[in-house]
Design a protein that fits this description.
The chain is mostly beta strands. Helices cover about 0% and strands about 50% of the residues. A six-stranded antiparallel barrel has the order 1-2-3-6-5-4. The protein is globular, with a radius of gyration of 12 Å.
């Protein structure tokens, strides 16, 4: 499920990165990033709507075809909720 999110907290490349999730669960998300993240790095992930925000831990970082990386983010302090609009 693609949800627009913002990642913050990269040590070498400060600033926010606007990106999207590939899938989401109650405990974490798989997120596409143009930045390479170290395993166990801490970050903040927030939905672009502002309805969800969480400190997180990078569980893995894998190169994806083309440019970028898929990172697994474990939610550590989730606040709010994901809002998914119905396609009806």
């Amino acid at each position: 499920m693609e949800i627009p999110v913002v990642l913050e907290g990269h040590r070498q490349l400060p600033g926010a990165e606007a990106t999207f999730t590939e899938n989401v669960s109650a405990k974490g998300a798989r997120v596409v990033s143009f930045r390479r993240w170290d395993k166990d790095a801490r970050l903040v992930l927030a939905s672009r709507t502002g309805e969800f925000r969480s400190a997180g831990r990078v569980a893995y970082c894998q190169p994806i075809h083309g440019e970028g990386y898929a990172i697994g983010v474990e939610f550590l302090e989730p606040q709010g909720r994901w809002v998914v609009e119905s396609a009806n």
